[in-house]
Write a structure and sequence with these properties.
The protein has helices spanning about 10-20, 25-30, 35-40, 50-60, 65-70, 100-105, 115-125, 170-185, 195-210, 215-230, 235-245, 265-280, 295-310, 320-335, 340-350, 380-385, 435, 460-465, 510, 565-570, 580-590, 595-600, and strands at about 75-80, 85, 95, 130, 130-135, 135-145, 150-160, 165-170, 420-425, 475-480, 485-490, 515-525, 530-540, 540-550, 555, 605-610. The protein has about 625 residues and is α+β, with helices and mostly antiparallel strands. It is globular, with a radius of gyration of 27 Å.
Length: about 625
């Protein structure tokens, strides 16, 4: 993160001017446990001479963002996140690993440890300690973990937590997060109003208009930032967008304080009830149906009735007005199997839907209706979000958006694209792929696999893909098709392994004898965050370049073009947008795309490839693990 153009003096002045005691700090003041002067964050700036003296004492030049911070505010009182004060220039010093953490972290390293893990293990002995008052927590700048702008990575280690230290790419990134947390801690205080809160609340209102106008991705970007600052309503609105995009069955569903509003009960509580009922089917103790801290008896009674009807299948979504009549018509069509007509009726009526409360963005109760819920597939949920509502007008959404960026959208609980890998071959027809990458010397394409109605096609045919494999093999079962720009593609919705390992050999070279070939492989972790992203490109039988990104660690081979290099593409990008930016770069450079609707509906022919792993050589170890989830479960 470059600090060029960032005005630390303005940033810190704004923080000082906005500062008010938090609820806990106000209690401490009232009880006389502290004084206002001890809580205020301000510190006078250091002089250039003071910073230079510190650098001579330490024997190094400080990283840009931290150096500029000292010249704007020589230390800072945080009173946040177990770190209470950052020291002045004359107070900072080398950490020196007083608790002998280095051997502990180095003992966990192995031959497949990432560069980032190796850096973190060695950080303790070389880090610069910034905090002077904390609750057994340490703020450490690592001169061994730097970027192209000269910034040092910052680690926060909470000694009492047992967790790995949290990493920030720079001191500025850390302070920005602390500023957001400062706002979030005070967001509910009635007198906490300033230029920042007013601007963020205006963004929330603009996000509401964008969402109702079908511009849901722009709305989501605005709400994501507002949520980090704790702005009222942002969390509930963001959760509505994510739930509609992913489906009601995806994980826990909560909508913050919106559930306290009786006008929102009929749209929000049924979806929460559906998720609760589905969670209750898994082993373990029964969990209470959690609504919100401020819900009154009227809301709780209505929620109890809705939960009972969702559980026994008698719940029906029944909004008022013209939209309610369209929902009833659609339900009658869907009841007899005409789901396409049902969806067209709902979609045509969306402009007439009127939110019963300002915080509602979508008719979310549709997803909990036992007849209409299955009609709103993941693709139709995205189409719903893209359709103008509440009297707004705009373009008709595209059920099958172009390009690749749609792969980075929030995932439904049973969606096929949590982890995926794909291959494109330029100028080839789909029928040619078996001869280029197929098993058994070119076995042909097979018909689309059968699958239960309403389910995505991932993991269908799992027994076939394992039959006759050697343990080290990693054959892909690809859905095969053609892009509009003249590339044949194969897409694996459920990679058998978590990512390229030491035996991985990209199939791009073997597929590229007639031109170019591109291989892409992505894997997500919790919260849909990308934890691995691989790209390899070959032409006429030879790999030109490749990279594998794991976290912030990049492994390269060959000269990766600047337009594709993750260090360039991801500069200044938030974690939530990393996968989208990487996909957009591949899309722009090669003109690649994938058909979302065809892949999700499972209508494409399939191909089983040769192994994406090579055989282990003499002396190389290989481990194979089988996991069983119970009788009749997946293995």
């Amino acid at each position: 993160m470059s600090d060029n153009g960032f005005d630390w003096r303005t940033f810190l002045r704004r923080w000082r001017d906005e500062w008010v005691p938090s609820e806990d700090e106000a209690m401490e003041l009232a009880e006389g446990e502290t004084t206002l002067a001890e809580l205020r964050p301000e510190e006078p700036p250091a002089s250039e001479a003071e910073v230079a003296d510190a650098e001579r004492r330490l024997g190094t030049r400080l990283p840009p963002s931290y150096r500029e911070f000292l010249l704007a505010g020589n230390g800072w009182r945080l009173h946040d996140d177990s770190v209470h004060r950052l020291g002045a220039a004359h107070e900072i010093g080398w950490f020196g690993d007083p608790f002998d953490m280095t051997p502990l972290y180095r003992s966990s390293l192995h031959e497949r440890s990432t560069e980032q893990e190796v850096l973190a293990a060695g950080m303790w002995q070389r880090a610069l300690q910034l905090e002077t008052d904390s609750d057994m927590s340490y703020v450490l700048l690592d001169p061994g973990d730097t970027d192209e702008d000269g910034e040092w990575a910052l680690y926060v280690y909470k000694g009492w937590s047992g967790e790995y230290p949290a990493r920030y790419p720079s001191f500025r990134a850390y302070m920005q997060r602390r500023y957001e947390s400062f706002h979030a801690d005070r967001a509910q205080l009635p007198d906490f109003v300033n230029d920042t809160t007013r601007a963020l609340d205006a963004d929330v209102e603009r996000a509401r208009e964008d969402a109702l106008g079908g511009r849901w991705e722009a709305a989501r970007d605005l709400l994501t930032v507002a949520r980090r600052y704790g702005r009222p309503g942002a969390w509930g609105m963001l959760q509505q967008l994510d739930t509609t995009a992913r489906g009601a069955g995806y994980g826990n569903v909560h909508f913050g304080g919106l559930v306290d509003d009786p006008r929102c009960v009929d749209d929000l509580v049924p979806v929460m009830a559906l998720a609760h009922v589905r969670d209750g089917r898994f082993p373990g103790p029964a969990r209470p149906f959690v609504l919100g801290a401020e819900t009154d008896d009227v809301v709780r009674a209505a929620a109890g009735d809705i939960l009972a009807r969702v559980r026994d299948g008698s719940y029906r979504y029944a909004p008022d007005g013209a939209f309610g009549r369209a929902v009833a018509e659609a339900r009658e069509a869907a009841r007899w199997g005409d789901t396409d007509t049902a969806w067209r009726v709902v979609r045509a009526a969306l402009p007439s839907w009127s939110p019963p409360a300002p915080g509602l963005l979508v008719p979310l109760g549709l997803l909990a209706d036992p007849v209409l819920g299955p009609v709103v597939t993941r693709e139709r949920g995205l189409e719903l979000l893209s359709t103008p509502r509440a009297g707004r007008t705009g373009p008709v959404p595209d059920l099958d958006p172009p390009g690749l960026s749609w792969l980075a959208e929030p995932q439904r609980w049973n969606a096929p694209h949590g982890s995926y890998r794909c291959l494109w071959v330029e100028g080839a027809e789909p029928e040619a792929l078996p001869g280029l990458v197929g098993q058994d010397g070119g076995a042909g394409l097979t018909a689309p696999p059968s699958r239960p109605a309403g389910w995505f096609p991932h993991d269908v045919g799992d027994a076939r893909r394992r039959d006759g494999w050697a343990l080290w093999e990693d054959r892909a079962v690809l859905a095969v098709g053609r892009t509009g720009s003249g590339w044949a593609f194969g897409f694996d919705t459920a990679p058998r392994v978590s990512g390229p390992g030491p035996l991985f050999v990209s199939p791009a070279a073997g597929a590229s004898h007639g031109g170019r070939a591109v291989v892409l492989w992505a894997r997500r972790g919790r919260g849909d965050a990308p934890v691995m992203f691989h790209l390899s490109v070959a032409e006429r039988g030879k790999e030109l370049y490749a990279y594998t990104l794991r976290g912030t660690d990049v492994e390269r081979s060959g000269p990766v073009p600047r337009a594709l290099d993750p260090e360039h593409v991801l500069r200044g990008v938030d974690d939530a947008d990393r996968e989208r930016r990487l996909l957009a770069a591949v899309q722009d450079v090669f003109g690649l795309s994938l058909p979302r609707h065809a892949l999700a509906e499972g209508i494409l022919p399939h191909l089983t490839t040769r192994s994406w792993n090579r055989a282990p050589r003499e002396g190389e170890g290989f481990t194979y693990v089988t996991v069983s989830t119970g009788r009749g479960g997946r293995r």
